[in-house]
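Lab meeting, item 3. Inverse folding demo.
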């Protein structure tokens, strides 16, 4: 059974995943890609994986970040800075929040 603080962390993590999904969907749509087309570009067999990510029910494996960056026509660093903000906010904060100038690309992506 989860305690209150654990439940809050879990809820926060879920909301961040949903935000990541909204960002991924927005980027995909900006490029005019369907979920099926993006699935093909990232090499996943099932386009439903894209749907799951966009609804916050999954995460992109780190070893696939470069493939996703290419598919979304982004520099790998920009992609990772953005996705890290959603998937690992504590690491993101340690790396960039203490020195906002350290992450100018991520700041641009809002």
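The presenter then showed the designed sequence:
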């Amino acid at each position: 059974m989860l305690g209150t603080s654990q439940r809050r962390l879990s809820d926060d993590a879920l909301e961040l995943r949903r935000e990541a999904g909204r960002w991924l969907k927005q980027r995909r749509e900006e490029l005019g890609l369907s979920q099926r087309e993006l699935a093909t570009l990232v090499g996943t067999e099932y386009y439903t994986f894209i749907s799951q990510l966009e609804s916050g029910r999954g995460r992109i494996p780190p070893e696939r970040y470069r493939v996703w960056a290419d598919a979304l026509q982004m520099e790998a660093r920009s992609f990772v800075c953005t996705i890290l903000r959603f998937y690992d906010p504590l690491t993101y904060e340690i790396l960039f929040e203490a020195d906002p100038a350290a992450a100018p690309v991520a700041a641009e992506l809002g």
